[in-house]
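Folding Problem: From Residues to Backbone Shape
Fields: amino acid sequence; protein backbone structure tokens
RECORD BEGINS BELOW THIS LINE
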Amino acid sequence: MSVCTKKVTIYSFDKIQEIASSFKATLDDDIINKLLEIKRNNKFITRRTPLRLKYQIQQSVATAWRKEREERETLSAKERFVNNLLSNLNKLSVKNFSIISEDCMKCYRIAIDEYIAEFKKNNPEMKEESKENADNWEDQFIETDIDCSEIDNEFLNTIFTKGMSEQNFSEVYAKLLQDICVKKVIKNMDIVSKIRELCDNFYDKNINELIQSVNSNVDYDELCQLFANKTKFVGGFVMISNLYKYRVLTFNIVKKYFNGLLEYTKHSPQEFIEKYLDTIITIIMSCGSELDKENNAEFKNNFMNPIIELKNNKNIVKQKFKFKFMDLIELYENNWIVDTEWTVNRKRK
């Protein structure tokens, strides 16, 4: 499969709704007559080929779309890169991982080449200056004078954000980030440190700040609004657990984020709490066995004991989630082996 290099336009759901609300067109007279025949006679017409709809878009709508297309043609190298990368990320799955992963990296390399070409075009004076000071100007110019960190950062940030927003597929995006780290796709960057920085930014912006707001004694209505605004960021924790699973994050980093989530849950209004309880369970189900294997004593003290306390807190945990926590605790006690009537019970000593 070749990398997608064509200009791709991605519309948000809100944009599609906006287009739908303003779309006005008039059907061709011939089409109207054929459709009327179905309506009048209350019967379908047998056709050898599908009926092709013909319509004429009103001038104002057509003009607006034409203008938008012209604006897309002037996208920067960075904007074209993000659109192409998202197009490839939307196709990423477990089955086609190796193919699409390579396509994403090709997309990045193409973006770097375009960014350098665009930079040279916009900065002709630097070419002459560098040419005077280097025998091999092309290599010297690219390595010393052009900062591609804007593309580098966008590459990682786009994948990380995609993983946060699509919880069901975050594992495959975490695996892609690990692949990028292993293959050292981005030169002159500590990729692992950059990904950890993205995780820290997520935590500080969406968890730490909220806890500080809660501790400042805000009223209940304002508290509800704060939690309502943050529910869409819960996927970040799922992404973090998957990054640990692929050894991009460390045990202590996950512990820090998990403790923040526990604190977050304790302060959450009842109408929002189920989302966070589900997230706690998902994190442990996702990477609990790996955390346990790395440091079982720390895992018990910092992960399982707080979960047991949470399970017994009737003010926070309703009966439905109490059973979910009981299943999780039983899985832990059975050394992460599902205990069925066909398997031997392997309780911890």
